[in-house]
Write a structure and sequence with these properties.
This protein is mainly β. It folds into five domains: 215 residues, 3-Layer(aba) Sandwich (Rossmann fold); 82 residues, Immunoglobulin-like (Sandwich); 105 residues, Sandwich (Immunoglobulin-like); 134 residues, Immunoglobulins (Immunoglobulin-like), CATH 2.60.40; 28 residues. The chain contains five helices and 44 strands.
């Protein structure tokens, strides 16, 4: 049991060390031939539970490691890695001096050091001399001037010659002449001059261990992130025009510290989240430099500036205005239009001077055409049925008088108009509809509009332009005439049918007249109707006879025209009076004539059953009255 307990304890101890260990890159001069001190440091790090990688003094990816140790054998780290953004422990005073940690350096020897400051690495130490080597050995130091925000913690006996020098984040490095301190570091750096590791005693090991922990005991700062940018790709722009470049960004550490600087071809050109680019013809590189004083990220654009006349309107983001539209922005030069507008074109409102329009508009009365789009097509001969939503955004309930016009813009005249009244509570809306016939004689080449005006003490108006379209193939029955005013069985029937071609193509037309009850089934020969214009109308006459012994009542005559593969029809109702051999109370004097457009089945084209019903009712009543009369006479005679 004790054996298993002991093994478990060892495993737990190793696990803890592995969990707390760091990934350390150890840069040496000769990885394949470590000197005795380098081997001692490697063994020490491994025993501490760190994962140590021996690195040659050539370029590597420092982001793979938690911190980097620079061996005393490495004289320079220039072009190897960036210590300003990497936690770095220098054991080479020469390399440290070249990177701005000191102005000069030197070597001394002995066993003892002096604690000059009890802070960070030396926290808890007394300010006194302390032995760190087991025997007389070399110690290296920095001298001269030192970075701003650096702390001299340990020296030999002269505080101007630090053996341990700590540089916290935001320290400013020096140059070789000690005149400039303007290079900032964004990760902790440390100089550790106890280079004879083979002679370390326990205090030296503690100081080295504390140095590793101090380097790692720092916030995990993150670089700012560019979230979005505009333009979203390399840009082709017009010469001498203002174009806005912008970036949006985030920073997990401190957004207030983030700055944005703009460069054009490497030259500083501005600062802030946006930059206005305005250049002559040429190619440029625009860079947004986003920095939080620790890390810097960039967004680059390759920009080509060209002559505007070589670009189409759409490429410039413009809108080509038609003859019916106006530009409320700027006219742009383009390769495909002289009417390229910098903003969306708007309708040029016609001069509806024949209508009762507004002298000034109040947008608190809103008019919206809900079922008609601008420049929507409508067929000549059809109907237009606009539906409008009227919104009352005034601060009171209101009775609105609403006028809607069907307007010919080209000839500046009203085709048709209608008006209605609508009560709408404040902050409410209602729907209202109108209907207009599109006359067959309207000119499809003209421009038309639907105009709605609410004109009271408050006024507003809205319009929609519409296009009238004349179909290629369309023939209509214009009217049907019957000469006689009264008809009974056996009478002659004279019927005239007028047809008109309202389409764009000539047509060969047939007219058929039919009613099965009246034994009518007549059809004309085909005849030509020229396209809509002149000679587009014809009349055909039918001379028929009403059959004898036909019941009185209404009958539907169906007139059908056929042309091409199309058919149209219209129905005419004639009412026959009572014939002489038909029981009646008298002769019907008034004959009803008319045209209907509803669908009627072939079998319904005979007499209407209504007259038979009343005739039968009359006979029943006559029998009843006759019976009552007989009963009265019988009773009287027996009395």
């Amino acid at each position: 049991m004790n054996k298993y307990f002991y093994l478990s304890f060892i495993f737990l101890f190793l696990s803890i060390n592995l969990v707390n260990g760091f990934d350390i890159g150890y840069v040496v001069k000769s990885p394949s031939n470590l000197d005795i001190d380098e081997q001692t440091i490697k063994n020490f790090l491994n025993n501490e539970g760190h994962a140590t990688t021996i690195l040659d003094d050539v370029t590597f990816d420092e982001s793979l490691y938690d911190l980097i140790i620079v061996s005393e054998s490495v004289n320079d780290i220039n072009n190897i890695f960036d210590h300003t953004n990497t936690k770095t422990l220098f054991m080479s005073n020469n390399a440290a001096k070249k990177k701005g940690l000191g102005a000069s350096y030197g070597v001394t020897s002995g066993r003892h050091i002096r604690i000059d400051k009890s802070e960070g690495i030396t926290e808890g130490y007394s300010l006194e001399s302390r032995q760190v080597y087991t025997s007389q050995s070399y110690m290296e130091y920095l001298s001269g001037c030192f970075p701003i925000n650096s702390d001299i913690l340990v020296s030999k006996f002269d505080i101007t010659k630090p053996i341990i020098l700590a540089l916290d984040i935001d320290s400013l490095l020096i140059d070789s002449s000690c005149t400039d301190r303007d290079k900032e570091i964004f990760e902790k750096n440390l100089y550790f001059g106890l280079t004879e590791a083979n002679n370390w005693d326990s205090d030296a090991e503690d100081l080295f261990r504390n140095s590793i922990e101090w380097l790692e005991d720092s916030p995990n700062y993150q670089a700012p992130v560019i979230e979005s940018f505009s333009p979203t790709a390399n840009a082709e722009l017009i010469e001498n025009t203002n174009n806005t470049f912008s970036v949006t960004y985030s920073d997990a550490d401190n957004l207030e510290e983030v700055t944005v600087n703009w460069k054009v071809d490497g030259q500083s050109s501005g600062s802030g989240d946006t930059y206005i680019f305005n250049k002559a013809i040429g190619t440029y590189e625009v860079i947004a430099v986003v920095s939080d004083n620790r890390f810097t990220v960039e967004q680059n654009w390759q920009v080509t500036v060209i002559d505007s006349s070589t670009l189409t309107c759409s490429v410039q983001g413009g809108d080509i205005c038609t003859s019916e539209e106006i530009c409320n922005g700027n006219i742009l030069e383009s390769s495909n239009s002289n009417n390229c507008c910098s903003v969306t074109c708007s309708l040029d409102e016609p001069n509806f001077d024949k209508a009762d329009t507004c002298s000034s508009k109040n947008n608190d009365i809103d008019i919206e055409f809900t079922n008609i789009d601008n420049n929507e097509d409508f067929n000549i001969g059809d109907k237009i049925s606009p539906t409008l939503k009227i919104s009352n955004d005034l601060n009171q309930d209101k009775d609105f008088k609403i006028k809607t016009y069907f307007y010919d813009i080209t000839d500046n005249k009203i085709i048709e108009k209608d008006s209605k009244t609508l009560s709408i509570n404040k902050n409410k809306n209602k729907i209202i509809g109108f209907e207009f016939d599109i006359g067959v004689n309207l000119d499809a080449d003209n421009n038309y509009a639907l105009l709605t005006v609410i004109n009271d003490d408050q006024c507003n108006q809205e319009f929609k332009k519409i296009d009238l379209v004349r179909k290629d193939n369309e023939v209509i029955i214009d009217k049907i005439e019957i000469k006689q005013n009264e008809l009974i069985c056996g009478d002659p029937l004279n019927l005239k049918v007028y047809v008109q071609n309202i389409g764009n193509e000539d047509q060969e037309v047939y007219i058929k007249l039919k009613n099965s009850k009246l034994k009518i089934d007549e059809q004309t020969e085909g005849f030509k109707l020229e396209k809509f214009d002149k000679d587009d109308s014809e009349k055909r006459e039918f001379n028929l006879n009403i059959p004898d012994n036909i019941k009185s009542g209404p009958y539907t005559l169906r007139t059908e025209i056929s042309y091409g593969n199309q058919k149209e029809y219209a129905d005419k109702i004639i009412t026959l009076g009572i014939c002489g051999n038909e029981d009646s109370l008298g002769t019907i004097k008034n004959i009803n004539l008319g045209v209907i457009n509803k669908d009627i089945k072939e079998e319904d084209l005979g007499t209407d059953g209504g007259s038979s019903f009343f005739r039968n009712l009359f006979l029943v009543l006559l029998i009843i009255f006759a019976g009552i009369g007989s009963f009265v006479v019988y009773s009287f005679s027996h009395n």
